[in-house]
């Protein structure tokens, strides 16, 4: 990391201010070539904004900026960092960046600043991932979970498991390496108990995988039903604005419409589908096929019926397949037909918005996703963590079985080492370049 990189760190487009970040051993020197400020940038007080002018190679003023210097190691990346807050025009921001590149900086790759922070020991891998979770958070609960992870709680949990396992590995390998030293292989109850403690810790972390998926991706919630029962009206009602076209004409919705709504701190990915019925219209048929596929993939199925008519249910128990299902009886302002009087569902009226709050509570209860329930379990693993922990668990179980059976310690040591490496990957304690490339490559340039 001998290069000094620069990138625009704010979102593209026009705004009041744009931020350009420069990081590396020559960050101050390079910026000093492009900037003019009182006393010189090299003498600027650390962490205090200084009014500067960005000067072109032919001594023209490109922009007036506020410049802040962060000296290593007290910076985000652990290197010298200079941040320039310039005017938020697209052209002026690009010109400032081009000037810094002319003076010796190199364009940063996606996620390079966060990667440098990780490689300089400022963050572990779970904290780096939490940055993207925070940026993409769509609810307060998801935001809080990202903050918890940024504080290192998930990394601390995985590291505690790893440290416990290191003791087991060290003991077994010492027995192998020094057979004449009378080291007890400790294959009895004490050793197995320590392994069982690690396995229990792995299971506890794995149990948060579904929670983590929901926090990051949302609950895939499909709104389905026959044509003209109020599916699009329900989507609009839950969102609080008109997203889908509403019409009395059957078959208005031809394709799926997807939006995210916050229900008691949990993101729901609401998917409005085309009404399912027999149709000869080729386009409507395609919409119905897509509806059926969405129902198959749903975490939660909201089946909407017209409560004012004796219509039949769309879904059977076989179609639902044991997944979370909620019956919504719409149009109760028109009167509820006798066929629905005793039905187990939530009665609402999309036209008057009556019952929508009750529906929100019913969704949270159905999924057991209320914020009060999740408040103490905000740190949750993602898919990568899950894969690492599962590999670690398989290897650890194999090592335990070998030790319990009295098989050669060499076999147990290999499995223990594999488990140790897999758990270490969660927080980035194992130098696996491909893993780092995959993670940081998904970041924004400038982050």
Instruction: Provide a count of the helices.
Output: 16
Strand tally is 13
By CATH, the topology of the largest domain is: Rossmann fold
Shape: flat
Q: What is the averaged pLDDT score? A: 82
End-to-end C-alpha gap: 16 Å
Strand order of the largest sheet: 3-4-5-6-2-1-7
**CATH homologous superfamily label of the largest domain:** P-loop containing nucleotide triphosphate hydrolases
What's the helical proportion of residues?
Answer: 40-55%
- What is the CATH first-level class name of the largest domain? Alpha Beta
Q: Extract low-pLDDT stretches.
A: 244-255, 276-281
Structural class: alpha/beta
Q: Per CATH, which architecture of the largest domain?
A: 3-Layer(aba) Sandwich
Note the main sheet: 7 strands, mixed
Rg over C-alpha atoms, rounded to the nearest angstrom: 29 Å
Percent strand equals 15-25%
Total discrete domains:
3
Characteristics:
447 residues, alpha/beta, Gyrase A, domain 2, Four Helix Bundle (Hemerythrin (Met), subunit A), Rossmann fold, 3 domains, seven-stranded mixed beta sheet, six-stranded mixed beta sheet, 16 helices, 13 strands
Characterization of the model:
This protein has 447 residues and is an alpha/beta fold. The protein has three domains: 115 residues, Probable tRNA modification gtpase trme, domain 1 (Gyrase A, domain 2); 127 residues, tRNA modification GTPase MnmE domain 2 (Four Helix Bundle (Hemerythrin (Met), subunit A), Up-down Bundle), CATH 1.20.120.430; 161 residues, Rossmann fold (3-Layer(aba) Sandwich). The two termini are 16 Å apart. About 4% of the residues have low confidence.
